[in-house]
């Protein structure tokens, strides 16, 4: 029997304590998959919300989320309900100056009105997450990863200027949203492939970390940091930013059982339910087994939030997401 609200459950786990059950937090649930699970059409999520509220009728997810990330200035290709980020548009100083004129104004009251209406209607007792960015991913996507890599050497000042534009945007957003009815700040910036980080630790410290520290220093609420890929080599440095949780811990490069041993008393671990195979290609039985194992090996003592390894994607099997849901409710109640 649940004794906590979803909000209390999530915040307890982020404090490295045991809630009534392991919380379930997702950055998004894709609308197309939500429709398959519900068996009916559903409206688009309102504003920049990441999950249609209707899906919470059937999944025991403990959060809602709203996205305040700055725009990406790149070619975006829609393949069904999946966005493919293509060529970046910020190649020169002239491109940068034109981009600054197009950036939304994070100081404008109307920028936040859709979020205020969303919270008023759907907040209830869910943990409300506000999504922001540090700046690196918007920079390399807007420049294009290959051009970005050349510019690290050919024009580092341009890289710094673009990254400062995006990180400054997030700083101004934080000034507002931390006075709104959000519980958790969710910072998403991919820094790695499965094989390792995009750039060397030397360049990470030179270009990324100053902007990341600047934004992190202004976060006053509990917060979670997300990166895909293998971040083992920079994890100790990332933890100096002071996050309460780290997600989504991609299976394969990130061994969550070893992370529990090494970091379980320092930071809440979130995610690691496999999108590459289990939820997209596996069976209901395999899904239940993986969820049970993660709960029983990572959950004891608290400090674990269950989640997919990058959001509930459109290509997941609906029956496997329901199996994840049912396994959580079956095995996730404390004491484990």
Automatic annotation (TrEMBL):
Residues 90-328 form the Uroporphyrinogen decarboxylase (URO-D) domain. One of its GO terms (molecular function) is uroporphyrinogen decarboxylase activity. It comes from the Bacteria. One of its GO terms (biological process) is porphyrin-containing compound biosynthetic process. InterPro entries: Methanogen_methyltrans, UROD/MetE-like_sf, Uroporphyrinogen_deCOase. SUPFAM superfamilies: UROD/MetE-like. Pfam families: URO-D. This is Uroporphyrinogen-III decarboxylase. The lineage of its organism: Bacteria, Bacillati, Bacillota, Clostridia, Eubacteriales.
């Amino acid at each position: 029997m649940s004794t906590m609200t979803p909000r209390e459950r999530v915040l307890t786990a982020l404090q490295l304590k045991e809630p009534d059950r392991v919380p379930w937090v997702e950055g998004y649930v894709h609308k197309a998959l939500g429709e398959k699970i519900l068996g009916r059409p559903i409206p688009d999520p309102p504003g920049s919300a990441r999950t249609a509220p209707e899906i919470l009728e059937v999944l025991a997810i403990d959060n809602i989320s709203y996205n305040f990330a700055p725009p990406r200035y790149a070619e975006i290709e829609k393949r069904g309900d999946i966005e493919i980020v293509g060529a970046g548009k910020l190649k020169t100083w002239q491109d940068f100056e034109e981009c600054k004129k197009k950036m939304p104004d994070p100081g404008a009251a109307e920028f936040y009105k859709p979020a205020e209406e969303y919270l008023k209607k759907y907040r209830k007792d869910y943990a409300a997450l506000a999504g922001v960015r540090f700046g690196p991913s918007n920079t390399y996507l807007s420049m294009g990863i290959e051009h970005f890599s050349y510019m690290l050497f050919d024009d580092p000042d341009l890289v710094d200027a673009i990254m400062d534009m995006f990180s400054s945007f997030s700083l101004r957003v934080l000034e507002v949203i931390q006075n709104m009815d959000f519980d958790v700040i969710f910072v998403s910036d991919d820094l790695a492939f499965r094989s390792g980080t995009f750039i060397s630790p030397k360049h990470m410290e030179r270009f990324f970390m100053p902007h990341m520290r600047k934004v992190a220093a202004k976060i006053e609420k509990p917060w979670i940091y997300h990166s895909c890929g293998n971040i083992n080599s920079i994890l100790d440095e990332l933890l100096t930013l002071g996050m309460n949780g780290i997600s989504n811990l991609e299976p394969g490069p990130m061994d969550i059982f070893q992370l529990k041993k090494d970091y379980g008393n320092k930071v809440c671990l979130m995610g690691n339910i496999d999108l590459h195979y289990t939820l997209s290609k596996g069976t209901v039985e395999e899904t239940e087994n993986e969820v049970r194992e993660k709960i029983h090996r990572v959950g004891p003592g608290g400090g674990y939030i269950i989640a997919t390894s990058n959001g509930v994607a459109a290509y997941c099997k609906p029956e496997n997401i329901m199996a994840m849901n049912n396994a959580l409710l079956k095995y996730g109640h404390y004491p484990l």
